[in-house]
Design goal:
Number of domains: 1
Radius of gyration: 16 Å
Number of strands: 9
Strand order of the largest sheet: 1-2-3-4-5-9-6
Strand content: 25-35%
CATH class: Alpha Beta
Distance between the termini: 27 Å
Order of helices and strands: EHHHEEEHEHEEEE
Helix content: 25-40%
Number of helices: 5
Oligomer: single chain
Structural class: alpha+beta
CATH architecture: 3-Layer(aba) Sandwich
């Protein structure tokens, strides 16, 4: 499947909200919940505008992953961009219907091919999210450590796994 990544725009709010809401249960199996308030459309619009400001200030870059029909099938973000220390953090999520099809790996590859102003990129995933670990490793990320702190999610005790890519 061909995909593209495009910077988020104001006009994407409603479609992105539907994508997040439709995939909520799926996402919350692997990552901590964004909270009930996130799924209130009025709150979502406020947060969306805040992301646009953050992107305009070049503190972060937010992209939508789209299929060849233009539908949102995921998102990928470069956040906490620190040009002084040449480091940022990556985050991504792919919708339930598109998992296991290489979409995350392709989107990350596309992101890494864009103009990136840092030399190191950090990533973090839960220890049970093997798919996400594979996405990172396919794109050259190396596992740095497993966090000592445990947390409970969906009745499981989990830890975060930290990754690093040096460009």
């Amino acid at each position: 499947m061909e995909i593209s990544i495009n910077s988020i725009q104001e006009r994407d709010a409603e479609e992105l909200y539907r994508f997040e809401k439709n995939n909520r249960q799926f996402f919350e199996q692997m990552v901590p919940s964004r909270g009930e308030d996130y799924y209130n459309f009025e709150t979502f619009k406020i947060r969306h505008r805040e992301l646009l400001v953050e992107q305009q200030e070049e503190k972060s870059k937010f992209y939508l992953i789209r299929d060849n029909s233009g539908n949102i099938i995921g998102r990928i973000n470069l956040v906490d961009i620190d040009t002084t220390n040449d480091i940022a953090e990556i985050g991504y999520r792919v919708g339930q219907d598109y998992g296991g099809k290489g979409i995350g790996a392709k989107a990350l590859k596309l992101l890494l091919e864009t103009e990136i102003s840092v030399k190191k990129i950090k990533a973090k995933t839960t220890m049970n999210n093997i798919g996400s670990q594979r996405v990172l490793e396919k794109n050259g990320f190396k596992q740095v450590c497993i966090d000592d702190d445990e947390f409970e999610m969906n009745g499981q005790k989990l830890q975060f796994v930290d990754y690093l890519l040096e460009l």
